[in-house]
Specification:
The protein is of the alpha/beta class. The protein has one domain (21-139): 3-Layer(aba) Sandwich (Rossmann fold). It is built from 7 helices and 5 strands. The protein has a 5-stranded parallel beta sheet with strand order 2-1-3-4-5, sandwiched between helices. Helix 3 (30-37) packs across helix 7 (126-139). The protein starts with a helix and ends with a helix.
Length: 140
């Protein structure tokens, strides 16, 4: 896993940034986020942040190819962040995959209504979550 500083430095070379796929993982639990990130193959780079308020700044600096957003982040309401990303000029078309321990039908509906591309249950093993994101990356 790369540090936030290393992630931002790589975008000084725009050509290099276009060659690789990047996934931004916004999760309340760094250990779980690292577990998800560990399942991505080498060409896909992951950046993990535990604070939702950092996401808009990161998207402003560098456009990730996909965002995994946890419903349990503490510093901003995840649905509000999802809506803000949908209206952000650099993030409007980035797939947002929301992960949650609560997989109720109403919760799923709210996520999709807020602009999420997909809703994944955290009851899935982390390698399945990573594979679902890889499938999304293959289609963008």
């Amino acid at each position: 896993m790369k540090s936030l500083h290393a992630y931002l430095e790589q975008f000084s070379d725009k050509e290099k940034a276009q060659e690789k796929k990047h996934v931004l993982i916004v999760h309340s639990n760094a250990r779980t986020a690292d577990a998800i990130a560990s399942h991505f193959p080498h060409p896909i780079e992951c950046t993990v942040v535990t604070k939702g308020r950092l996401v808009l700044g990161l998207v402003e600096i560098s456009k990730p190819d996909a965002i995994i957003l946890d419903t349990q982040i503490q510093d901003i309401y995840y649905l509000q962040l999802c809506i803000m990303l949908r209206y952000h000029h650099n993030a409007a078309n980035i797939p947002i995959l929301i992960v949650s321990k609560n997989a109720g039908l109403l919760e799923k509906y709210r996520c999709i209504e807020a602009g999420a591309s997909d809703f994944l249950s955290m009851t899935n093993p982390t390698h399945i979550i990573a594979k679902r994101v890889q499938n999304v990356l293959a289609s963008v």
